[in-house]
Write a structure and sequence with these properties.
Blueprint lengths: L1 E5 L6 H13 L4 E4 L20 H11 L4 E4 L2 E2 L5 H15 L5 E4 L4 H7 L6 H20 L2 E5 L4 E6 L11 E4 L3 H10 L2 E5 L2 H17 L7 E5 L1 E4 L5 E2 L2 E4 L1 H13 L4 E5 L7 H20 L1
Parallel strand pairs: 1-14, 2-3, 4-5, 5-8, 8-9, 9-10, 10-14, 11-13
Antiparallel strand pairs: 6-7, 12-13
């Protein structure tokens, strides 16, 4: 299992880039960034506070690193047109020398959609639109010209050059509903979820069942996220799991047992300064994950 880093997009841009550079130097597999415009409140309430735009940060991360995979986790197709996503992804793949992963999702955060005027339809229409969007994006990344006439997108003989450096730039989908899993199995190369090992592993099993149903033969790269901390006083608080090194090694091993290919570690809870976050992330990597996945 590979280990990737997820810096917090509310931090200063210089701090985010420092974390990405350190991850590149220290042997992390990837650097992921969230695609949101404001902090989430769970409803329509507006939330003040900084939130950097991910497609402004990703080229900088790509340019200042040389080894890590780079991508958004994940960009909502309610906000970004699929043809634009394909062009951005191919360009950043060139900037990175072939290390870009395009994370896509259907969209969900209520307050940002309402505040900025992005439509957030009901579940069926949301997934219908995502299904069209991923097809358009995949075609524009792979083929010379794309023509697509759907209920939501109309693309006519659209060129998309230059193509990515990678022979097939991977699309990773964030989502866990039955239809989203089938769409992922049909069109994507990777998948991401939140969850503790057994709950995340159950959704992973449903994804593999969906892959079998659609006749997929290509392997799927599966990834998951959770927040860790070392030597906390409680076993779990919200989305943060705390414990001794031995306890967290056991937890990491359970992710491996569930078959995940990549664990993404958010650094959001690891300190108020860049130095604190880097030190604690490095400790989690070297003391918890490296012994388990070696």
């Amino acid at each position: 299992m590979r280990l990737s880093l997820w810096p917090n997009s509310t931090n200063p841009a210089a701090d985010i880039l420092d974390e990405a550079r350190a991850a590149d130097d220290d042997g992390w597999y990837g650097v992921w960034l969230a695609d949101h415009y404001m902090p989430n409140t769970g409803d329509l309430t507006r939330a003040d506070g900084p939130m950097h735009e991910v497609w402004g940060l990703l080229p900088a991360v790509a340019a200042m690193t040389s080894k890590v995979r780079v991508g958004p986790l994940v960009s909502p197709t309610t906000i970004h047109h699929p043809a634009l996503l394909a062009k951005r992804a191919a360009t950043i793949d060139h900037v990175s020398g072939g290390r870009f992963v395009l994370g896509l999702g259907a969209g969900w955060q209520l307050n940002e959609h309402d505040a900025y005027g992005f439509e957030l339809p009901g579940a069926k229409a949301l997934v219908d639109r995502f299904d069209e969007a991923i097809q358009v994006t995949r075609s524009m990344l792979d083929t010379r010209r794309t023509t697509f006439h759907g209920a939501y997108y109309d693309v006519a003989d659209a060129p998309a050059d230059p193509k990515p450096v990678q022979e097939r730039l991977p699309i990773l989908v964030g989502g866990k509903g039955p239809r989203m899993l089938r769409i992922t199995a049909r069109h994507a190369q990777g998948w991401n979820t939140w969850g503790l090992p057994e709950s995340a592993g159950e959704v992973r099993r449903r994804l593999l069942e969906a892959a079998e149903q659609v006749g997929r033969t290509e392997p799927l790269w599966t990834t998951t996220n959770w927040m860790f901390d070392v030597d906390g006083e409680t076993p779990m608080a919200g989305r943060v799991v705390t414990g001794s090194v031995a306890e967290l090694q056991d937890l990491a091993g359970r992710y491996v047992e569930q078959g995940f290919d990549e664990f993404v570690l958010p650094t959001w809870n690891l300190g108020s300064t860049t130095a604190e976050r880097q030190d604690r992330a490095a400790r989690i990597k070297t003391e918890i994950f490296d012994p388990v996945v070696a």
